[in-house]
Amino acid sequence: MSAEIICVGSELLLGDILNSNAKFLAQQLAQLGIPHYYQTVVGDNPERIKQVIEIAASRVQILIFTGGLGPTPDDLTCETIADFFGVPLVENAEIIEDISEKFTQRGGVISPSNRKQALIPQGAEILPNPTGTAPGIIWQPQPGLTIFTFPGVPSEMHRMWSETAVPFLKSQGWGKEIIYSRSLKFWGIGESVLAEKVSAYLNLPNPTVAPYAGNGEVRLRISAKASDSTALADLISPIEKQLREIGGLDYYGADDDTLASVLGELLRSSGETLSVAESCTGGGLGQMLTEISGSSDYFLGGVISYDNSVKVGLLGVNPEDLDKFGAVSATVAEQMAVGVKARLSTTWGLSITGIAGPTGGNVAKPVGLVYIGLAGSGDEVKSYECRFGAMWHRSFIRYLSACQALDNLRRSLLKR
Q1: Cα dihedral sign for 63, 66, 70, 72?
Q2: What DSSP designation does 93 have?
Q3: Which value, in Å, is the radius of gyration of the alpha carbons in the chain?
Q4: How many Å apart are CA 142 and CA 279, to the nearest integer?
């Protein structure tokens, strides 16, 4: 028994609107323990919508439609569904009354086009829309198949789902099990390398483990299905522990954790402070740190030393070393870190200097070359060379540089 999500709207195919409805519904189905293996996006075309219905109805028991319930001519979902199953549309007096009342409350009058929203397949039940004028339907056009329709407006759909669809599904015996996923996050290791390390876990039946990569990090998603949260924890916890041990220092957090939030907790727990000096990232590192609520406990501030005069005047970088090694060098990165640490009187100083591109690189120092400096207690100072490659966009190189700097300090704290 499974469900399929079908999102209707040419604007989705054109990329004009982000399809957040599919994400919401997928998460909600998981909470009810309802498997779903397919999502479809189709434009406002009756024939293509019918093709989608034919395929979906042959492989699932629940079809969930979003979009295409408005008053305009291109809102075709209900009439196309009815036509596919050979059932006439009928005007529902209850819907007319509801729409009329909402227009009156807003100081308007129901128009002929809005009456279209009161046409539903004969035999279908109303799925009320408390806030908008487009109701949905709950319909079982044939044995073993239930259809839900929702408007495309996310806020309307969310409320209709929770207030009507969920109680209906539970009344039909769904929702007795829960599907829960936990995402483990890794930095500094490739997807293929991590997959090889955890290969023995990738064919488990319950929980399942799957790797995926994005934005420079790798994740292992652990998904389990059980009757309650206690049973889920019993399934997931031992696997999570083993995967974290395999990942070692490459593992940095789970679910909503970020490198900045994890680093912040390490600094807070040890009572230490941090300042940053940034060149190519232009404040991106500081932004990541200050996005965390309470970061003022450990992050004192930073210097955006984009021009060499700022590196010399504020951070104390040796101008002769700038001439000899260049701004993008290990020597300058170290001096930037030492300088900001001293100026702001922090436990740690972290610096970034590099070539984010697309111009400015050469054979000796290509686009994507970045140096990170880290100054700690006493005279301890380190530098790290990173070569992110010229194939990446400037903004992504800046993002990777900031993340790598956070990770370098995180590892240093954990290794002590």
Answers
A1: negative
A2: H
A3: 28
A4: 64
**Cβ-contact 372, 408 below 8 angstroms:** yes
Which residues, listed in sequence order, are joined to residue 221 by a DSSP beta bridge?
Answer: 183, 210
- Write the pLDDT tens digit of every residue in 181-201: 899 999 999 999 999 999 999
Give residues with Cβ within 8 angstroms of 123, minimum separation 6.
Answer: 87, 139, 141
348-354 and 299-304 strand pairing: unpaired
Collect all residues with Cβ–Cβ distance below 8 Å to 146 and sequence separation of at least 6. 61, 62, 63, 138, 139, 140, 172
pLDDT digits (tens, 9 = 90+) for 51-75: 999 999 999 999 999 999 988 888 8
- Token representation of residue 296: 């003022």
Compute CA distances 177 → 31, 170, 180, 328, whole Å.
8, 11, 10, 55
pTM: 0.79
| CA gap 131, 149 in Å, rounded | 16
Query: Tokens at residue 65, please?
Result: 């439609």
Residues 8 and 68: beta-carbon distance below 8 Å? yes
**Nearest alpha carbon to residue 138 among 103, 163, 155, 113:** 163
> What is the three-class DSSP state of 383?
strand
Q: Where are the beta strands (DSSP E) in 71-177?
A: 89-91, 119-121, 125-127, 136-142, 145-150
